[in-house]
Design a protein that fits this description.
The chain has 13 helices and 16 strands. By secondary structure, it is α+β, with helices and mostly antiparallel strands. Heteromultimer composed of HisG and HisZ subunits.
Length: 386
């Protein structure tokens, strides 16, 4: 086994890609700051029960676990930063009213989410705690879209759904946890035969509602159909009305945005408690960003208050973002001349990239393009176009 080989689905990020990712990270953090979100930096390791609070079985399977040699307790390497943000909101900040937090850091997954996916995404996310109204849901969706626009992605499509719709369909039906998990899987995979078998023995209204959910994806006609084909229950009515309200405001803010509805999309069902969304772009088979409302995430920390947020993988986003050219730089000779060294220092302090040609080596410029050089003219160090 070669010492330089990395584990499967783990990779180094080389200079050109690292620069693109870092520049994108800065743009996204600036967007979040423009909305009033405060940056937090949670640790990579935590006690396992804290990391998995209110997240369901799916995140448990994604989480690497190890034993702490100091305490003997089981630790987890974070696979998602949202529970950590909830812990910070609940115990370290413990503010009254609304708190807006954002973060950007690596997470680690036991298995890749797709054939070519990394097991070490660079997760960027934002959360609003303390407001139960749709205004917070809308703000988070708008920030997610603004972040994708900051990455210069076009032809965006947002799919809206709501976890309460399935809960409304199943209300009063004898469905245990194992059966519910299978129903969610069948809906997510749009497996009509499996869903029909799972619905056997349930009330007629529930069976009809489950069958209808498989067909309820598409444009605005989905909401009209939901009002007639799903059970007439207050939970479902409220969810449909809120989906309509959110879509109307998103269209006003982003005129070129394509909006769809997929009421059978149950990704993260155990995690979400209300409206949820996924954003897609041209050339991407998977969602670029996912988010929604998850009011139960802070319960284990003793502060069960409203929460809504989104996250995305900066590495995947950078791969899809339009390519940028090499960074502009200035070539300078290396020397002990005080005036030369002072000139180089002034240029760097002003934000310029200055590459000094070390003695005996040519300047390597794979990630930089030297379009100017520092030369001695008439006894003064001056810039000249290459």
């Amino acid at each position: 086994m070669s010492a330089w080989l990395l584990p499967e689905h783990i990779a180094d990020v080389l200079p050109a890609d690292a620069r693109r990712i870092e520049e994108l990270r800065r743009r996204l953090l600036d967007r979040a700051r423009g909305y009033g979100f405060e940056l937090v930096m949670p640790p990579l390791l935590e006690h396992l029960e804290s990391l998995l609070s209110g997240t369901g079985r799916e995140l448990d399977l994604k989480t690497f676990k190890l034993v702490d040699q100091l305490s003997g307790r089981t630790l987890g390497v974070r696979a998602d930063t949202t529970p950590q943000a909830a812990r910070i909101d609940a115990h370290l900040l413990n503010r009254e009213g609304v708190t807006r937090l954002c973060y950007c850091g690596p997470v680690l997954h036991t298995r890749p989410s797709g054939l070519n996916a990394t097991r070490e995404p660079l997760q960027f996310g934002a959360e609003i705690f303390g407001h139960a109204g749709l205004e917070a849901d809308l703000e988070v969706a708008e920030l997610a879209l603004d972040c994708l626009h900051a990455a210069r992605l076009s032809e965006l499509t947002i799919d809206l759904a709501d976890a309460r719709i399935l809960r409304g369909v199943l209300a009063g039906a004898p469905v245990d946890a194992a059966r519910l998990q299978d129903v969610v899987a069948a809906l997510s995979e749009k497996d009509a035969s499996a869903l029909e078998a799972l619905a056997a023995g349930l009330p007629d209204e529930t069976r009809h509602g489950l069958r209808a959910l498989l067909r309820l994806y598409g444009g605005d006609e989905v909401l009209a159909a939901a009002r007639t084909e799903l059970p007439q229950r207050s939970l479902i009515t409220a969810a449909v009305e809120q989906l309509e309200w959110t879509a109307r405001h998103l269209r006003a803010a982003f005129p070129g945005l394509s909006i769809g509805f997929d009421l059978s999309d149950m990704s993260g069902y155990a995690y979400y408690s209300g409206l949820r969304f996924a954003v897609y772009g041209a050339g991407s088979a998977d969602a670029l960003a996912r988010g929604g409302r998850y009011d139960e995430v802070g319960a284990v920390f003793g502060r069960n208050r409203p929460a809504v947020g989104f996250s995305l993988d900066l590495k995947a986003l950078a791969d899809l973002a339009p390519a940028v050219g090499a960074g502009r730089a200035i070539r300078a000779p290396w020397g002990e001349d005080a005036a030369l060294r002072a000139a180089v220092r002034r240029l760097r302090e002003s934000g310029e990239t200055v590459i000094a040609a070390l003695p005996g080596h040519e300047v390597e410029t794979q990630a930089f393009e030297c379009d100017r050089e520092l030369v001695l003219l008439d006894g003064q160090w001056q810039l000249r176009t290459c």
